[in-house]
């Protein structure tokens, strides 16, 4: 009976781990960042949203976006802008330290020139919990 209880407990732990962390583990900060940038480059808002939680926030120059609905609205608009023909994007620097990732980039879309931009990501348990975005941009 004691062995059966231990086996049942082990099964429950394994089930929890695989449900909480697909593949049995949380993605690293670098893996989350790479997935996020790849999803953005592909224009896949659903995949982008998988990187966030119900409690995630994005802090912008214009204010704070809290929760999935507000964050999705931002990415719907960004993907629409960055999907137009003629867009260029350059990732100038990437720095990762434990659960924090920092990127510097510049881009040009049909609508705007982003001369300088930075994003900082705080990643916990394989999800972006907090992101900051700052940029200098001018309309065309």
TrEMBL record:
SUPFAM superfamilies xref list: NTF2-like (SSF54427)
Gene3D superfamilies on file: 3.10.450.50
Keywords: Signal
A Pfam family annotated for this UniProt entry: SnoaL_2
Annotated SnoaL-like domain residues: 35-129
Signal sequence bounds: 1-22
Protein name (record): SnoaL-like domain protein
Source species of the chain: Boseongicola aestuarii
